[in-house]
């Protein structure tokens, strides 16, 4: 076996080397070459963008973008089955039923909600010692499934006419987060009261002060945002929703202000300190 006789040597002086043969390998697979070409172009583009960013070395910036891409993929893998299961549950729920269901902290459903929250950037500012996992640092989390069958029926009926041959696609549907917290102006109400009210009545477009405008609106974001702040009771609460939005309701690429209650369907609430 000749391969077993191969040895490595270090030659410090290039003058001691005599080039005898040059081996050129040509890839015949056209599709593979196309893929490699696309990858090289993408890598060059990322490298150029990273080099133009003087705040970080190019290699670190490239690795950061790769991590973000992997995280976005994981987010989608957790999100899709969770949303499908929640909608199936609403389809099977009793007519007119409203309220919340407290999920056991060890249940797969609760852990999926928490994972989605963390993968989306939630709790990014939570202090933690070196080597401690973010989920562990987050501590106790209360997760509830929201069941509002009447609102579910209203939500699902919206935009159905756009599926007809002559209809127009009216809405863009997104999985979004809405942050809520206890404020000083809430007086005797508790965060639990606010969450229960949202579960039973949906969101009030005229009460949301985040991103407020003259016409009101329910502020939502495609990822949980710490900018909602911590409530005066020291708690952070986020609600995972489905939303049907119009183009002009998007403030930027990740945040929107939805003007109708019926177009935001709350599915889960998550509370932690």
Automatic annotation (TrEMBL):
<protein>
    <recommendedName>
        <fullName>Poly [ADP-ribose] polymerase</fullName>
    </recommendedName>
</protein>
<feature type="region of interest" description="Disordered">
    <location>
        <begin position="46"/>
        <end position="66"/>
    </location>
</feature>
């Amino acid at each position: 076996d000749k391969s077993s006789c191969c040895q490595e040597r270090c030659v410090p002086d290039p003058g001691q080397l005599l080039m005898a043969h040059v081996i050129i390998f040509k890839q015949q697979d056209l599709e593979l070459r196309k893929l490699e070409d696309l990858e090289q172009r993408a890598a060059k583009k990322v490298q150029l963008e990273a080099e133009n960013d003087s705040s970080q070395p190019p290699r670190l910036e490239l690795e950061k973008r790769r991590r973000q891409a992997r995280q976005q993929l994981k987010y989608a893998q957790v999100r899709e089955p969770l949303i499908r299961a929640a909608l199936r549950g609403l389809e099977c729920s009793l007519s007119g039923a409203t309220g919340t269901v407290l999920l056991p902290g060890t249940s797969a459903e609760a852990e999926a909600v928490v994972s989605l929250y963390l993968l989306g950037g939630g709790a990014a500012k939570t202090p933690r010692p070196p080597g401690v996992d973010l989920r562990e640092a987050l501590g106790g989390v209360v997760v509830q499934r929201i069941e509002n069958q009447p609102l579910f029926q209203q939500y699902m009926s919206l935009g159905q006419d756009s599926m007809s041959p002559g209809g127009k696609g009216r809405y863009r549907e997104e999985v979004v987060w809405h942050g809520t917290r206890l404020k000083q102006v809430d007086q005797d109400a508790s965060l639990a009261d606010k969450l229960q009210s949202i579960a039973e009545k949906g969101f009030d477009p005229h009460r949301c002060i985040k991103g407020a405008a003259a016409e009101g609106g329910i502020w939502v974001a495609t990822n949980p945002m710490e900018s909602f702040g911590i409530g005066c009771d020291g708690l952070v609460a986020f609600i995972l929703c489905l939303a049907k939005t119009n183009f002009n309701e998007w403030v930027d690429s990740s945040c929107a202000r939805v003007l109708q209650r019926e177009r935001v369907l709350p599915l889960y609430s998550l509370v932690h300190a």
